[in-house]
Amino acid sequence: MTAIFADFDKLSSAQLYDLLKLRQDVFMIEQNCLYQDMDNSDQLALHLLVYQEDTLAAYLRIFAPGIKFKEASLGRIIVSPDFRGGEIGKKLINLGIRKTFDLFEGTNIRIEAQAALKEYYAHFGFTEEGDIYIVDKIEHLQMVLTNVS
Length: 149
Description:
The protein has a single domain, classed as Gcn5-related N-acetyltransferase (GNAT) (Aminopeptidase, 3-Layer(aba) Sandwich), CATH 3.40.630.30. It contains three helices and seven strands. It has helices at residues 13-30, 88-103, 118-122, and strands spanning 2-7, 46-52, 55-63, 72-79, 109-114, 127-135, 138-145. The protein has a seven-stranded mixed beta sheet, with helices on both faces. Strand 4 (72-79), helix 2 and strand 5 (109-114) form a beta-alpha-beta unit. It starts with a strand and ends with a strand.
């Protein structure tokens, strides 16, 4: 497993292709959801790509406080179908949490989670906040991880 953190302008063309393809394959094709994935936010994010050999196995993006929410945030959290059920998803999220808290001391982390994954994110310490709402025909909810340092 190789983890890569990169600002948008530091991503190679192959890495950018890999992450956009994975997001399309899962969020649009697998979940049968037509939405605007290229949202002009990638340029503002730090990208975490987790490769297993030459294959992108998992990905997420990190935002500084004040970009998506008042807190720092994680988004587009995704694990390739070929790597689900193992440890890569847990490693991805733990790496994202650690990096976010290192970069933005004193902030909490907010995610906009698919409601079906509420219990999964709760295992990392995220707690739900507010009611379930619909985004692109999928139930979502806000969850927050409090920085205890």
